[in-house]
Amino acid sequence: AWAMCGFAEELEWFDTISETSLDPDSYRDGGKNNLGSLMLKAAKATCDFYIENSCTDGIPYWDTGAPGLSKMGDYLNKPADPFNSYEPFDSSAAAIGAQGLLRLGKYLQNKGDDKSGNRYWQAGLSVMNTLLDEPYLSSNDAHQGMTLHSIYHRPNGWDHIPAGSKIPNGESSMWGDYHIREGCLYLQRIISNEKYYAFFNCI
Fold first, then answer.
1. Is 116 within 8 Å of 142 (Cβ atoms)?
2. Strand partners of residue 105
3. What is the SS3 assignment for 74?
């Protein structure tokens, strides 16, 4: 998810710089065009992997190689169930990945590749639509987080397992909440036809 968002954001930034502003060492790698092609290839590869390894509502498990997945049947062809008995989902990865999908989609649309761009854009909207509703959007005034079912460090056992559950669920993380908020702001700017929101022009 971090790579999805990072490569898409770098592509956006790369479009704003000139060839001469690059470090001279970059010319050994073919200059701006070649570096941009490498970033686009990486952005597509990570976003494709996410789409192919997430549930139908766009939410991924905490690890695509998690051992309990073998007990879950055809889990990729149905919506995520954060209350299952085998493996937790990670809403924070979904929030971060959604931005990667949306930004890559918009980048490709702006380059005239509507077919690929629309695919990533719609995937990103699907993830956001899922996260902005229960059971992911917290509706409990007593809970201090916004996006539920985030995972911090499953192998180290640092995630809270509620009473009656076999897996971690129900908690938030600051990076998950940050990215869902930023994703909403990103979409709001586009819907309102305001200045495009990016890390290099957001202030």
1. no
2. none
3. coil
Q: How far is CA 72 from the centre of its chain?
A: 23
Torsion of the alpha carbons at 157, 97, 26 and 20, rounded to the nearest 10:
-140
Q: How confident is the model at residue 31 (pLDDT cuts 50, 70, 90)?
A: confident
Q: How many CB atoms lie within 10 A of CB 23?
A: 7
CA distance linking residue 194 with residue 197, whole number of Å? 9
The per-residue pLDDT for range 113-127, each reduced to its tens digit, is 999 999 999 999 999
List, in sequence order, the alpha helices (H) in the chain: 2-14, 31-52, 91-110, 114-131, 174-191
**How far apart, in whole angstroms, are the C-alpha atoms of residue 125 and residue 142?**
28
Mention the CATH class of domain 2-191: mainly alpha
How do the domains of the chain map onto residue ranges? 2-191
For residues 66 and 40, give the distance between their C-alpha atoms in angstroms, rounded to a whole number. 28
